[in-house]
Design brief:
The complex is a heterodimer. Chain A contains 7 helices and no strands. In chain A, helix 2 runs antiparallel to helix 3. Chain A is globular. Chain A starts with 8 loop residues before the first helix and ends with a helix. The relative contact order of chain A is 0.06. Chain B is mostly helical. In chain B, 70% of the residues lie in helices and 0% in strands. Chain B is built from 2 helices and no strands. Chain B is rod-shaped. The chains are: A mainly alpha, B mainly alpha. Chains A and B meet through helix 3, helix 5, helix 6 and helix 7 of A and helix 1 and helix 2 of B.
């Protein structure tokens, strides 16, 4: 991170927004995991998604930010809350382990992930300066994403469409009342 | 800095790979949530409980 005084005005604004959003994102994420009430968890997750959208805006990824708010925080979380309300909220915590060695394995894997992330940061994987993002974003972020989505990633895009259709049909079949 | 169309495609392919990946992650998450919640509703209809730890029909 560049020193506060040496940065330009826009960099200072960027840093300010980040300093506000980042702790909020961490607090809401931890609160979402620790909350015993499922509805509170879902609402904290919505706040966290909005923080993520803010990060995307800071990274000049406006399309992903909009999708994050509309699809993730909007549609997916509303569906989540809808099902939560429909099934009723049970707030008793399951303290018995049903899978043997679940907790040690979880701790071990979390530590492994932490080591990997810290190692990647220390090795400077993310140090590269994204200097040409403004150049490519020139004609508009959405246009650029659309162009690459329908040229290089056409196959993945169509596959995602099939996946969504299959998921919708599957949900329909699962949700259908058995005769 | 202006770049030619070929360099532009190459550059955008590199720079937008992350954004496209984030987009696809969201798409897959949407599909997952739909199926997962459908399964949860089906379990609730069958057992009147949403505790997934109690579901052990496939346990050998």
């Amino acid at each position: 991170v560049t020193p506060l005084l040496a940065a330009t005005a826009s960099e200072q604004a960027e840093l300010l927004v980040f300093v506000v959003l980042a702790p909020l994102a961490v607090v809401t994420a931890v609160g979402m995991v620790l909350s015993s009430n499922a509805v509170y968890s879902a609402l904290l997750l919505v706040v966290n998604f909005f923080c993520l959208a803010g990060f995307y805006v800071l990274l000049e990824a406006q399309f992903v930010a909009a999708v994050q708010v509309i699809v993730y925080a909007g549609a997916i979380m509303v569906l989540f809350l809808f099902v939560l309300m429909l099934l009723g909220v049970e707030s008793q915590e399951a303290l018995t382990e049903t899978i043997k060695g679940q907790r040690p394995a979880a701790v071990l894997l979390s530590l492994g992930l932490l080591v990997a992330v810290v190692g990647a940061l220390a090795a400077g994987v993310f140090d590269a300066e994204p200097a040409s993002l403004a150049t490519v974003n020139e004609g508009g972020n959405v246009q650029a994403i659309g162009r690459i989505l329908f040229t290089r990633y056409t196959f993945a895009f169509e596959t995602a469409g099939i996946l969504l259709v299959v998921a919708a049909v599957g949900a329909l079949v699962l949700g259908k009342r058995q005769p | 800095m202006r770049v030619g169309p070929g360099a532009y495609l190459l550059l955008s392919a590199i720079l937008f790979a992350g954004q496209v990946l984030a987009f696809f992650v969201m798409v897959v998450a949407a599909a997952e949530v739909v199926v997962g919640l459908g399964i949860l509703v089906a379990i609730f209809r069958k057992r009147s409980s949403t505790s997934v730890d109690d579901v052990n029909l496939l346990k050998g």
